[in-house]
Amino acid sequence: MFTGIIQAIGTIAALEPKGEDVRVRVQTGKLDLADVQLGDSIAVNGVCLTAVDLPGDGFWADVSGETLSRTTFAGLQKGSRANLEKALTPTTRLGGHLVSGHVDGIGEVVSRQSDGRSERFVIRAPAELARYIAEKGSICVDGISLTVNDVKGAEFELNIVPHTLVETTMSEFKPGTQINLEVDIIARYLERLLLGDNATDKQGGGISLEKLQEYGFIRNP
């Protein structure tokens, strides 16, 4: 688990194809690896990876075909910068929100504009994730824990302060940039719980007004 508070910006130093998979070397910059051991988890742009080698200035990790198909890793190149965070510990400050490092889908930057010293971004999420994104709720964008300012359909707005722009790769975001999205894990579990006995129905159905009324979340007029 992670908090979504980025600890360093790293660099993709090497990408080695291994059949359907890829082995990646990440140079970790200012990230302190003194307490990292083989097998530990490190989030790279919000993707939980396992350190399989520690050469001193970074780590090597294996990226599966599943991860390549569901994240922006397939588009990374040697020299690409990436947000890094070590897995949280029982004494870690939870400054963001609980993040699993399991990407739900790929979003796209729709627009970017200045707002005083901050930057406002509009992000388009995959349609199937829209129901998990709520105004003033939390979302993880390329590993960064952020607060949603506004939601319109599958698009949501973010207000990014200067510190976040400096300490993450968001300074490089522009219209068309693809990003990893992880929705709030609580929303995922809440939907599953509301399905009740229908959770085993392969047809799904998700949350509906009828289900919310049935469980008392909405009162009938």
Describe this structure in words.
It contains four helices and 13 strands. The strands form two sheets. A seven-stranded antiparallel β-sheet has the order 10-9-13-7-8-12-11. A six-stranded antiparallel β-barrel has the order 1-2-5-4-3-6. A hairpin with a 4-residue loop joins β4 and β5. The protein has helices spanning 65-70, 162-167, 185-195, 209-214; strands at 8-18, 21-27, 41-44, 47-53, 58-63, 81-86, 105-115, 118-124, 138-141, 144-147, 150-152, 155-160, 178-183. The radius of gyration is 19 Å and the shape is globular. The protein folds into two domains: 8-86, Elongation Factor Tu (Ef-tu), domain 3 (Beta Barrel), CATH 2.40.30; 105-183, Elongation Factor Tu (Ef-tu), domain 3. It is mainly β and 221 residues long.
Give the gist of this structure.
This protein has helices spanning 65-70, 162-167, 185-195, 209-214, and strands at 8-18, 21-27, 41-44, 47-53, 58-63, 81-86, 105-115, 118-124, 138-141, 144-147, 150-152, 155-160, 178-183.
